[in-house]
Amino acid sequence: MKLRVDHETRYIYDAPVVYGLQQIRLRPKDTRGQKVLDWEVTIEGGESQLRYEDHNGNSVDLVGIEPGRTETSIRCVGLIENTETDGVLGEHKGFLPLWHYRRSSDLTKAGEGVRKLVASLEDADKSDVGTGHRLSEAVLEAVEYEGGNTHAGTTAEEAIGIGTGVCQDHAHIFCSAARLMGLPARYVSGYLMMNDRVEQDASHAWAEAFFEGIGWVGFDISNGYSPDERYIRVATGIDFREAAPISGMRMGGSGEGVLVNLRVEQ
Hints:
The chain has helices at about 110-120, 130-140, 155-160, 165-180, 240-245; strands at about 1-15, 20-25, 35-45, 45-55, 60-65, 70-80, 90, 145, 165, 185-190, 200, 205-210, 215-220, 230-235, 245-250, 255-265. The longest helix has 14 residues, at about 165-180. By secondary structure, it is of the alpha+beta class. Helix content is about 15%, strand content about 40%. α2 (about 130-140) crosses α4. The protein folds into 2 domains: about 1-80 and about 245-265, Immunoglobulin-like (Sandwich); about 90-245, Roll (C8orf32 fold), CATH 3.10.620. The relative contact order is 0.24. A hairpin with a 3-residue loop joins β12 (about 205-210) and β13 (about 215-220).
């Protein structure tokens, strides 16, 4: 299956920017079942200062915002060819050891809510990939998919307390619980081609866990299955902050508006 992506994020600032830097993680790589045929990132109102590979193996563009700008735009257009892998990415690669992905973070620190979730799976075999699916089901049962009640800084524990969340929250809770069970786990950001529409409001997020003898396996908790040919894997990290499509800082401008246009189609 070939997928085409056209993704633009436009920032509108309340006042001219004095200084600003953005880290852009919007370049997918070739992985098992995924081949990048064409991909281009263009910047309006800024300039790429450096492109590098971070500690998670993500391709990152460091973009400087032009001083005095009140609007910037980041657009990526590309073509990906996918084949079915049943969500299995395979062996561990990169510089980071597997134990790194058993670490917690501010967004994934396990508290009472996550511990209760794991306790409900007390007989789970962490060597069995079926455990990942059981955990995925438990997360979705505990936190119903519903937008508007959480935000980018909502922690796994907070989302469980609220009882509703989006794909980012589901991925954080899954990672928190999997790590508590002794499984390496990581957050994944990317794209999903919807069956019922081309225009989308935002990119997608899911999680991966590592199982001995199989390797990394993906779990889309929000949709209840492993990633298939409709998914484009872009960036990974210990949590959202390390895999966010765009993050950064700026001086000048007390507020900003964000407009997103995204099309994912076959």
